[in-house]
Fold this sequence. Notes:
single chain; Tetracycline Repressor, domain 2; 10 helices; elongated
Amino acid sequence: MTEAATAGRRSRITPERQAELYDAVLDLLREVGYDALTMDAVATRTRSSKATLYRQWGGKAELVVRAIRHGKPDHAAAVDTGSLRGDLHALVQLEDDCTIEQNSALMRGVAMAMHSNPDLREAFRAQLVEPEIGAFHQVVRRAVERGEIRADCPALEFMVHMLVGGFATRALLDDQPPTRAFLTSYIDAVVLPALGAA
């Protein structure tokens, strides 16, 4: 679904009401998980009609992914500190530890649901994965242009995988949520050396 089509459908809901709906969706997602979350439950929680929710978002997958996207900082593309290390550290600093922990829990739940929900997987990729990857590619492109890393560095292809891996496995292996301090240390100890950056 295009941004224009979605924006057209959402035009009757004020930004304040939209934020309220998204907050309610995220609360429900944390409480019951994706599979048990229903449009009926969202309608009841937000005192909306189910018809309005479907008209504005088309279905549960789009609504959930838009809610997650709404809660994420939207200025990653503007990060430009003049160095790769500075840019990666600045991206980590866009969210505080509490928000990182909440998002980590949400992402784990949604990731499990994506295996059996192709519509969720498609919306997640279009609304969250591709914009995030685009921001990282911009950071890498500037680093290559500055001569910080080689354009033919074999680790470049796996940079996003490295970053996602550090984020996702923190809770799995250490039974702790990722934090700014952990992610910053991980960038310095793993990501930058793999890229051959100082």
